[in-house]
Structure formats: C-alpha cells, structure tokens
C-alpha cells in the first residue's frame, strides 16, 4: 500500500521490527474486546500475526506510526467486502492501542485513507462497522462522515460514498 502521511503520523507497511509495538496492542484485553480478536498471550503468537500483516501490507493494511516517537500505535485496513457486489467498493477496519484512545489519532488516520481511496484509487464507496458496545469506534466513524445503515445482533454498519 502507498505510504500516507499527516502532521502526527505515517501510515506505512508493517516490518518485522514492529513486533514489540504490535504485541503491546494485541495483548491488551480492552483492545481485543472492542476489536473482536483473541488476546495474544505471547510474542510468538503476535509474530504469526505480524508475518501475516507484512504480507497484507502489500495490498490492504497499514501500520499507524506516531511520528514523534516512531511507535506503532495500531493499524488500519481497507479490503474487499466478502459479499461485495459492487467491485468498486471497499470495507474499512481499524484498531488503536488503548493508551492513544481519545486523542483524535484514529480519526486522522481514517481521513488519510479516505482521501487516498476516493481521490487516488477512485473507489466509489466504503463500508465500516463496529461492535455494538464500541462507542469509540462509532465516534470515529461518524466524525469521518459515514452514515448509519443498519445493525444486527452484534454490529452497526455505516456507509460513505465519494459523492
């Protein structure tokens, strides 16, 4: 994926040197609960995920690096929807380390990606979702202009189009 940059962060491919930062994020129970993944107990478990992330960085996944301390604080992913009938539509997902919640960083990262996909990649629409109790993700999603579509028993879904 193309490297993206703002005043406070860089969105870039994952590297093997990111293991400690990724483990800090994936071993956090609160982060895992709100993002819907299992807590990684060991760095060996996290290393397996990191290797997958490195491969996925080529097409759909960015590490979010905070410029001021060169620390990875989460990730953002743009991927094809599994049930995507519109081939020019993508789905967006994101995860942020707990110590960075509430600072506007994920909103900034999402806006960087939206600008890139709408203006450079010429994607027509984006879907984004969050688990029902994940109010922080809801706030990011709505601040970035997404409109609520529907919810099911576990998630709320939102839509944003280029127009």
Automatic annotation (TrEMBL):
Q: Which UniProt keywords are given for this protein, alphabetically ordered? A: Transferase
Q: List, alphabetically, the InterPro entries matched.
A: Acyl_CoA_acyltransferase (IPR016181), GNAT_dom (IPR000182), N-acetyltransferase (IPR051531)
- What PROSITE patterns does the database record attribute to this sequence? GNAT (PS51186)
Residues annotated as domain N-acetyltransferase: 9-163
Keyword set includes NAD: no
**Cross-referenced Gene3D superfamilies:** 3.40.630.30
Q: Which residues cross the membrane?
A: none
Question: Which domain of life does this protein belong to?
Answer: Bacteria
Q: Which GO terms describe its molecular function?
A: acyltransferase activity, transferring groups other than amino-acyl groups
Q: What is this protein called?
A: N-acetyltransferase
The protein's organism comes out as Clostridium taeniosporum
Taxonomic lineage of this organism?
Bacteria, Bacillati, Bacillota, Clostridia, Eubacteriales
